[in-house]
Specification:
about 240 residues; alpha+beta; seven-stranded antiparallel β-sheet; disordered C terminus
């Protein structure tokens, strides 16, 4: 019994490390945007100093353009870099909380049988009550064997950050070991009449995943495979 428990702990730690690597691999990197912003600020300072040395009377439209262009470039890339840095920092904090077991939100739901692939990553679906309403929760896994370790049926979903970061999640099924997903996102609300099951029953219909299957979407990276942040109608039912 002791050996089995030690083996389970090692498996859990290994699965966590694999999921964390996949999650941080999808994190936005602000280095490029901040680097361009720094260069633009340098050009701005240079052109402003040149214009100041020439005097107001000698200013031309070209001089104004040389000042405005790096100003706009610095503003755009600087804003992008700050936003990406903020997302990356939040993701790091979420993974630190996951490593120490600091759960932000716990959901009880039902794991559906069927899965799919988004941007090369296996994705499984759990139906859980969020704010009192049944909703699809999509979970991305680093490897197919990790997704396969989540059996269909009742499962506890532990989340370590809010929807803007989309992950990670610790899954504790009714039978089997702990499974780690590196990214999560909220899908559509469940329509009971269309899905042929109820969450209270604790098991989906034998027909498998009642969720409509759609392709991956594109957009700014916030940790979800394919780069979608799940905001708005992006073709995948994200919210």
């Amino acid at each position: 019994m002791t050996n089995e428990r030690a083996h389970d702990v090692r498996d859990d730690a290994g699965a966590f490390r694999v999921a964390r690597r996949a999650g941080m691999r999808g994190a936005p990197d602000p280095t490029s945007a901040l680097g361009i912003a720094a260069v633009a600020i340098g050009l701005l300072v240079y052109f402003v100093s040149m214009a100041a040395g020439q005097g107001v009377d000698s200013l031309t439209s070209d001089t104004v353009l040389f000042v405005v262009f790096p100003l706009v470039l610095a503003a755009v890339t600087g804003t992008t870099g700050v936003r990406e840095a903020s997302v990356r920092l939040r993701m790091r904090r979420a993974w630190r909380r996951a490593g120490s077991g600091e759960v932000v939100q716990g959901l009880t739901g039902v794991a559906l049988r069927e899965g799919r692939t988004v941007a090369g990553y296996p994705v499984r679906t759990v139906i859980a009550r969020v704010d009192g309403r049944a909703r699809y929760i999509r979970l991305a896994f680093a490897r197919a064997d990790e997704a396969g370790r989540l059996p269909p049926g009742p499962v506890q979903v532990d989340l370590f950050d809010g929807p803007p970061v989309r992950g990670p999640a610790r899954l504790r099924p009714g039978h089997g070991g702990v499974v780690w997903a590196f990214a999560t996102r909220h899908g559509d609300l469940v329509v009971e009449e269309e899905t042929r099951y109820t969450v209270e029953d604790g098991w989906p219909d034998s027909g498998g995943d009642a969720e409509p299957s759609t392709g991956p979407s594109t957009g700014p990276s916030t940790g979800w495979p394919g780069g979608s942040d799940g905001d708005g109608n992006d073709g995948d039912g994200g919210e």
